[in-house]
């Protein structure tokens, strides 16, 4: 028979016995008399009194049974969840309901062992405001200190607490405070009280609550541990996501491989460089998945593993399907675990292919355009037009080139021409001049732009003399039939310098009458002769020895122009 059935059976039997006693009273009135009735009546009275005591004890036991059953159900409920807030609320509401308390408080120790109020509730299951959440600090301290529960039926008269200010100030009467213990360590306390009624809590409540609080403490600690684990997991997940984001945002390609050269991780940049997806790279052996790279760095990988030292600045040129030959810079670093033991290698790749191509294009561009011009041009602000400036223009043209080119193969002709033009160009660039263009067998250059040069005319003359002397040195290395000479013209004047052409094809050049005049002077020069205008001579300030030649008529000029032949520098 179950506990509930046994209680009900006892109650029914007690009720039948009570009825039997009452019937005995009636029979006694009808049959007994005198002293016999009196003795029998006293026995019935005594039996009746004992019966009432038994009924009262049974009622108390039944109430305790109901409380225990309710606590058992609540215990099962609090152990069925790991949500700390839910557990605290269930524990507190159960205690208030079972004890008939006015208020209930649950306090837990914090990280610094200080006691923190986690829940304050009243009998209506409402959360108390801080102004209504005052408790007896003396009682709480005693429970924390002794590790034993405290029960007082009337704190106002209890000699242990009558002198305590909190007891008096808050008019506290019935108080029950029980420690929450896990493995003999106090993690907090449960405090219940009633400020208006004394004797609310009984001694048998103390034992029952002590046992319940042990169970509640375990559930609370499990929930706190679970909450801590969830928090740590969230932090680890957040850190992992952050690391993944950082890993993916690295501009360099990064592969991590184990000691057996199996790829563990690959970021987006590495996939782009290698022309493969992460699924194709991760998990494969480097030699199987990317043999062209593995063949070039396998020795270095082993070297890093054996020496346990990083290797940087390694440059390789693998050929990859779909990408062709690449210029890669590789850095290899040991990957260590928490015990500082090497478990693999980080391979960091920088794709220099496009950069190297741009550098090659720039070098080619610098051979066609003065580096000084390149430095002054802003690619993001290119626009057609120019600015006025005083420059010294130089034209150098190969004499007799038309007749020389007849009968020569084109390849041979271009080779000879380039060697002569290169000598002229190098002389101009040595003096920081700007080569405007090559006009077939001629060179056009200027000085004093885009950077100002106070001695720009002198620089032009020195360049012309260098062209003449460099050609003499060049001719010593060439067959006589390949020996050509320049006629050179120099003039000073104002010109417009800037970009001309269209957005599809631009040319940085100098335009103006002074430029045309320099070209006309050059057209009148003999092989190996350097002719300069009066304006150029005036700008040299006796720095050169020059002789006048016959005045010449220039196209576009109404009067003949005085020209001078440069002999040498002073």
Describe this structure as you would to a colleague.
The structure is a single chain. The protein folds into 4 domains: 3-75; 82-228, GAF domain (Beta-Lactamase, 2-Layer Sandwich); 250-355, PAS domain (Beta-Lactamase, 2-Layer Sandwich), CATH 3.30.450.20; 369-569, Nucleotide cyclase, GGDEF domain (Alpha-Beta Plaits). It is 47% helix and 26% strand. It contains 17 helices and 20 strands. Strands 13, 14, 15, 16, 17, 18, 19 and 20 form an 8-stranded mixed β-sheet that branches. β14 (434-439) and β15 form a beta hairpin. It is rod-shaped, with a radius of gyration of 54 Å. The mean pLDDT is 82.
* Helical content (DSSP H or I, runs of 4+): 40-55%
CATH level-two architecture of the largest domain = 2-Layer Sandwich
Please provide the count of β strands: 20
CATH topology type of the largest domain: Alpha-Beta Plaits
CATH evolutionary superfamily of the largest domain? Nucleotide cyclase, GGDEF domain
| Domains (count) | 4
Q: Mean pLDDT, nearest integer?
A: 82
Number of helical segments with 4 or more residues: 17
Indicate the structural class: alpha+beta
Q: What oligomeric assembly is this protein in?
A: single chain
Poorly predicted regions are: none
Please state roughly what percent of the residues sit in beta strands, choosing from under 5%, 5-15%, 15-25%, 25-35%, 35-45% or over 45%: 25-35%
């Amino acid at each position: 028979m179950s506990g509930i059935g046994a209680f009900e059976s006892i109650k029914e039997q007690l009720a039948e016995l009570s009825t039997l006693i009452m019937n005995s009273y009636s029979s006694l009135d009808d049959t007994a008399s005198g002293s016999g009735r009196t003795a029998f009546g006293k026995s019935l009275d005594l039996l009746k009194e004992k019966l009432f005591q038994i009924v009262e004890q049974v009622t108390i036991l039944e109430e305790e049974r109901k409380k225990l059953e309710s606590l058992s159900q609540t215990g099962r409920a609090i152990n069925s969840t790991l949500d700390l807030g839910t557990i605290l609320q269930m524990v507190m509401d159960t205690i208030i309901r079972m004890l008939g308390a006015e208020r209930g408080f649950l306090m837990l120790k914090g990280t610094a062992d200080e006691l923190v109020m986690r829940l304050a509730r009243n009998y209506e299951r409402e959360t108390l405001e801080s102004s209504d959440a005052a408790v007896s600090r003396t009682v709480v301290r005693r429970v924390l200190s002794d590790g034993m529960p405290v029960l007082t039926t009337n704190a106002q008269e209890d000699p242990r607490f009558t002198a305590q200010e909190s007891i008096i100030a808050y008019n506290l009467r019935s108080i029950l405070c029980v420690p929450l213990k896990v493995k003999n360590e106090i993690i907090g306390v449960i405090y219940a009280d009633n400020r208006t009624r004394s004797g609310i809590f009984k001694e048998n409540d103390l034992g029952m609550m002590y046992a319940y609080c042990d169970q509640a403490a375990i559930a609370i600690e499990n929930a706190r541990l679970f909450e801590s684990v969830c928090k740590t997991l969230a932090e680890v997940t957040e850190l992992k996501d952050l690391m993944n984001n950082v890993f993916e945002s690295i501009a360099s390609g990064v592969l991590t491989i184990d000691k057996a050269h199996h790829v563990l991780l690959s970021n987006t940049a590495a996939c782009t460089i290698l022309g493969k997806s992460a699924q194709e790279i991760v998990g494969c052996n480097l030699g199987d998945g990317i043999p062209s790279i593995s063949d070039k760095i396998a020795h270095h990988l082993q070297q890093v593993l054996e020496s346990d030292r990083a290797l940087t600045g390694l440059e390789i040129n693998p050929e990859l399907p779909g990408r062709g030959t690449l210029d890669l810079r590789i850095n290899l670093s040991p990957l260590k675990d928490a015990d500082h033991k090497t478990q693999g290698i980080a391979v960091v790749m920088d794709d220099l292919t496009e950069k190297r191509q741009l550098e090659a294009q720039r070098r080619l561009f610098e051979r066609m355009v003065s580096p000084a011009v390149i430095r002054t041009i802003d690619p993001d602000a290119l626009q057609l037009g120019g600015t006025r400036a005083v420059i010294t223009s130089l034209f150098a043209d190969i004499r007799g080139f038309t007749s020389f080119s007849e009968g020569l193969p084109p390849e041979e002709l271009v080779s000879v021409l380039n060697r002569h033009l290169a000598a002229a160009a190098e002389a101009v660039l040595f003096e920081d001049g700007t080569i405007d263009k090559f006009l077939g067998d001629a060179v056009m250059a200027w000085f004093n732009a885009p950077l100002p040069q106070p001695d720009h005319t002198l620089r032009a003359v020195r360049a012309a003399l260098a062209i003449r002397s460099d050609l003499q040195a060049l001719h010593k290395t060439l067959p006589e039939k390949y020996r050509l000479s320049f006629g050179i013209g120099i003039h000073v004047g104002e010109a417009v310098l800037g970009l001309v052409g269209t957005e599809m094809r631009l040319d940085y050049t100098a335009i103006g009458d002074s430029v045309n005049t320099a070209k006309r002077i050059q057209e009148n020069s003999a092989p190996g002769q350097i002719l300069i205008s009066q304006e150029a001579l005036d700008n040299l300030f006796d720095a050169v020895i020059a002789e006048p030649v016959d005045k010449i008529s220039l196209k576009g000029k109404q009067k003949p122009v005085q020209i001078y032949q440069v002999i040498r520098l002073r």
